[in-house]
Design brief:
It is a single chain. The protein is α+β, with helices and mostly antiparallel strands and 157 residues long. It has one domain: Jelly Rolls (Sandwich), CATH 2.60.120.10. The chain has 3 helices and 11 strands, in the order ββαββββββββααβ. The strands form 3 sheets. The protein has a 6-stranded antiparallel sheet. The chain has a 3-stranded antiparallel sheet with strand order 7-6-9, with no helix packed on it. Strand 6 and strand 7 form a beta hairpin. Helix 2 (106-117) runs antiparallel to helix 3. The longest helix is centred in the C-terminal third of the chain and has 12 residues, at 106-117. It is globular.
């Protein structure tokens, strides 16, 4: 419905999903990601999706080609599937980005992860790594439960 979006909280971020597989016939997912100061995912890669980031507000640094680079508000950076990357918020206020992944499906990964974060016991790294692997997302270096998992390309994580 216009003006409404699903909000998911996981991995310390708040994600507002504007368009998902349902609205785009599986073509892409589009959301606003709000990352607190000091937040951001560990280095990882996606087997299934290309990912494009538009930094809207705050400070962003991206890990690509083995180094961290600053990406100011108003800039866009693209990560093709298979490229190891990460981002972080080095600033003292929230980082706001609009992120597009294609094809769609990332929303399912985040929804499953949010469920794990809501468990009464704290989320286990092993369970989160298993969820990620099921959705074609691999942390690099691998988290303990991802060691030895075959990716669809036959690369062993």
């Amino acid at each position: 419905m216009p003006g409404q979006c699903r909000v998911i909280n996981a991995y310390g971020d708040e994600l507002h999903f504007h368009l998902t597989a349902t609205q785009t016939a599986g073509a892409f997912t589009l959301f606003t990601d709000i990352t607190p100061p000091g937040g951001g995912p560990p280095p990882h890669y996606h087997v299934n999706e290309d990912e494009t980031f538009c930094v809207v507000e705050g400070e962003a640094e991206f890990f690509v080609d083995g180094r961290w680079i600053g990406v100011p508000a108003g800039c866009v950076i693209h990560m093709p599937r298979g490229v190891r990357h990460a981002f972080r918020n080095p600033g003292n206020r929230p980082l706001r980005q609009i992120i597009k992944l294609s094809p769609a499906g990332f929303e399912d990964f985040m929804a499953e992860s949010e469920t794990e974060f809501k468990r009464s016991d704290s989320p286990a790294v092993e369970r989160l790594a298993t969820i990620a692997a099921r959705h074609g997302i691999f942390f690099d270096p691998p988290l303990p439960s991802q060691k030895g998992i075959e990716t669809p390309e036959g690369i062993t994580a």
